[in-house]
Write a structure and sequence with these properties.
By secondary structure, the protein is an alpha/beta fold. The protein has 2 domains: 133 residues, Cobalamin-binding domain (Rossmann fold, 3-Layer(aba) Sandwich); 283 residues, pyruvate-formate lyase- activating enzyme. 37% of the residues lie in helices and 17% in strands. The chain contains 17 helices and 17 strands. The strands form 4 sheets. It has a 6-stranded parallel beta sheet, with helices on both faces. Helix 13 links the parallel strand 15 and strand 16. Helix 7 packs parallel to helix 8. The two termini are 30 Å apart. Bound molecules: cobalamin and iron/sulfur cluster. Cobalamin (B12) binds next to helix 1, strand 5, strand 6, helix 3 and helix 6.
Length: 441
């Protein structure tokens, strides 16, 4: 049995496939391959930089679908199916809107695959493939094996991706994770994660968990086990970690170098509309940022712009504030309602969405505003978002932000990482603005 995994690209820039030079290994497939018996031959093609060999024989094609890759995923699926190859689609977008995805595949997987993927492959072998597979919820995460070997010979940024937990106890109204996991959060046994990592030659690890500190006591167990490994890691976390001194200390000693944190907005009205409860109890962000700075973690701050209290002046102020905070990186994403999230339903019922399915619409370009903002036109918000990214990542501001001697410039490694990744991300951000989704073939 041979299974072909495909990571789709997003689309075209200037008529050519977008080439993401900041691409990371697609962990999803290492996890899926790890669920199968070792006699199943698993191969991976990464459409972000490789040509897909449509003519190579295979028994099954498995494609991961996220909202920005949906259009391209459906194109790839159609090309295989025309050749009589069976295709299964899975991933966040499929789980959020299964009715759409099922029109483009022989079979779809809704939710997490852990307990059901081996059955699917067995059904295929016995000629009994079902149109829909529903993953168990919450997923059982014990005994997982991550088959990173499927990345050998591939070209990715030099960091090992892994995952300790799934889900999040919060439910921000814009977030696909919040909608899918419905405030649940489950962890892999810390010993298993630590043992897997101990065998990895890479010393730089990215925990892709949506919120690695959501169960602080279990997270502490993991961090204790990581201390002797002397690796450096980055992860994603809600700001709550800064309220627990023991947790912060263990994060530091286990090698935490930096964290992606969703600040989202500096406006209490916006945070309320977002349902970003985990930030709402803070009177201001500065004290908590200073605490994080004192311990030396670099911050990748995520902002969502375009909520009802935003206007062009407030967006400009937020960008200046982010520069003043000397964040290592920041993302200024325009609110883009994902299907089956509360914000999508709210905007749809208010008639504010410009397109029914913006992710499939010919008129949509990456970075476009897809709804009617309260205090701007959609075009003004699109322009403000692009301006925010250019401004924050302007070479002068990259230099200014570097000069934080507690974080970005605290040692040679931090400074080198800062200057390796800031120009790279800047180039990619500017390059992908205006991309059309899919190859339109
Ligand atoms: C790490 C990550 C990234 C990394 C990229 C990693 C990489 N390798 O390229 C970075 C930070 C660069 C990134 C970028 C972006 N990301 Co991102 N990212 C994630 C994150 C946090 C983890 C993904 C992961 O590796 N999960 C671990 C694996 C094991 O889980 P999984 O993918 O869900 O797979 C399981 C099941 O879904 C299922 N499954 C998945 N695919 C398939 C396929 C088949 C055939 C089968 C059978 C099963 C199956 O099986 C797996 C095991 O159970 C997710 C959130 C999340 N919780 O997953 C967001 C997420 C996928 N990202 C998202 C977005 C929007 C983006 C961006 C567009 C953000 C932006 N505005 O720029 C960009 C661009 C993405 C792109 N495609 O190019 C959204 C997608 C929303 C949606 N509705 O589709 C998510 C869900 C975040 C969110 N909460 O909204 N991202
Ligand atoms: S805290 Fe983060 S992962 Fe959790 S629901 Fe909110 S945005 Fe999503």
């Amino acid at each position: 049995m041979k299974i072909t995994f495909i990571k789709p690209n997003m689309g075209l820039v200037g008529g050519r496939p977008y080439l993401d030079r900041g691409r990371m290994e697609p962990l999803t497939f290492a996890v899926l391959a790890g669920l199968l018996p070792s006699d199943v031959d698993c191969v991976l093609f990464d459409d972000r930089y490789e040509k897909i060999p449509y003519h190579e024989p295979t028994d099954l094609v498995c494609i991961n679908v996220e909202i920005y890759t949906a259009r391209r995923a459906y194109e790839i699926s159609a090309s295989f199916r025309q050749r009589g190859v069976k295709v299964i689609l899975g991933g966040f977008h499929v789980s959020m809107i299964p009715d759409e995805a099922s029109q483009h595949a022989d079979s779809i997987m809704i939710g997490d695959a852990e307990e059901i993927f081996p059955k699917l492959v067995n059904d295929l072998a016995t000629g009994n493939l079902q149109p829909i597979y529903q993953g168990h919820f919450p997923p059982r995460l014990q005994g997982l094996k991550t088959r990173w070997d499927i990345f050998s010979g591939k070209s990715y940024l030099p960091l090992r991706l892994t995952q300790f937990s799934r889900g999040c106890p919060n439910h921000c109204r814009f977030c696909a994770t919040g909608s899918l996991y419905q405030r649940t959060h489950c962890c892999r046994p810390p010993q298993e994660v630590a043992a897997e990592l101990a065998e990895q030659p890479q010393n730089f690890v990215f925990f892709v968990d949506d919120n690695i500190v959501a169960q602080p006591d279990v997270a502490k167990e993991l961090f204790r086990l990581l201390i002797p490994q002397k690796k450096r890691w980055i992860g994603q976390a809600s700001l709550s970690f800064a309220e627990d001194a023991e947790l912060m200390d263990l994060m530091k000693r286990s090698g935490c170098a930096g964290l992606v944190v969703g600040f989202e907005s500096t406006s209490p009205e916006n945070l309320k509309q977002m349902g970003k409860n985990c930030n709402m109890h803070l009177d201001s962000y500065e004290p908590v940022i200073n605490k994080i700075r004192d311990i030396g973690f670099q911050l990748w701050a995520a902002f969502l712009i375009g909520y009802d209290a935003d206007n062009i002046a407030s967006i400009k102020q937020t960008v200046q504030w982010a520069i003043d905070q000397k964040f290592c990186f920041a993302a200024f994403n325009i609110l883009s309602p994902y299907p089956n999230t509360p914000i999508y339903e709210e905007m749809q019922s208010q008639g504010r969405l410009l397109y029914d399915k913006w992710w499939l619409d010919d008129r949509y370009h990456f970075g476009d505003c897809v709804f009617r903002p309260a205090q701007m036109t959609p075009d003004e918000l699109t322009e403000a978002g692009f301006w925010a990214r250019r401004r924050f990542n302007h070479p002068v501001n990259i230099l200014k932000r570097a000069l934080d001697f507690k974080t970005n410039a605290k040692d040679l490694w931090s400074l080198a990482t800062y200057f390796a990744y800031n120009p790279l991300f800047r180039r990619e951000l500017l390059k992908k603005h205006g991309m059309v989704l899919g190859y339109r073939s």
